[in-house]
Design brief:
With about 180 residues, the chain is mostly helical. It has one domain. The chain is built from 6 helices and no strands. Helix 3 (about 50-70) runs antiparallel to helix 6 (about 160-184). The chain is globular and about 50 Å long.
Length: about 180
């Protein structure tokens, strides 16, 4: 791929990342700070009704685009990125099977993988954005995300931020699917 195509791919994924962050935070705010009672909420109803499809789409994008970066663009992943892939790739299959069977119990199977992937991703993002270069878990001397191969919107959007957003968005979906249906 040429540099212009890579830039537009980064912009596309960056806008998608920011949109997923916005909609996830909005869903959590509405879920936990809305008036209690018999109030129905259109936004939470939509997420609750379609969480299998939404989860499948997020895991699809989160599984395909890292492969695009590593196999087509040749941005090799660091070992923290590999661990995040270990936790994300099975989720694609889990949500695919759950969508096929319309099985809402995928929450209990996906939650441990999501939590582990989220913790690895949060760890990586902390050091990526706030760590000193001498203490980075995967230094820039070899294969490393810290080489800042993707840096859009003033450096806010990076490969680690996209991964963290995917895990956060999936955790939000599971929170809405689990807690919202119990209240109604």
């Amino acid at each position: 791929m040429n540099q212009e195509s890579i830039h537009y791919l980064n912009l596309f994924l960056g806008v998608g990342t920011i949109a997923l962050q916005f909609f996830s935070v909005l869903a959590l705010l509405v879920l936990f700070f809305r008036p209690k009672g018999n109030n129905k909420n259109f936004y939470l109803d939509f997420i609750n009704k379609h969480f299998l499809v939404l989860g499948f789409l997020i895991t699809l994008f989160s599984s395909v685009f890292p492969l695009v970066y590593s196999e087509i663009i040749n941005f090799l992943p660091c070992y923290l990125c590999w661990w995040q892939r270990v936790f994300m790739f099975p989720l694609f299959l889990m949500f695919g099977v759950a969508l096929w069977d319309k099985d809402r119990k995928v929450i209990r199977y996906a939650l441990p993988l999501l939590c582990a992937g989220f913790l690895v991703s949060a760890y990586q993002n902390f050091f990526y954005y706030f760590g000193e270069t001498s203490n980075l878990p995967c230094d820039a001397s070899g294969v490393s995300c810290y080489q800042r191969l993707v840096s859009e919107f003033g450096g806010y959007i990076s490969i680690p931020m996209m991964a963290l957003t995917a895990f956060f968005g999936l955790l939000t979906l599971l929170a809405v699917a689990h807690f919202y249906k119990k209240e109604n």
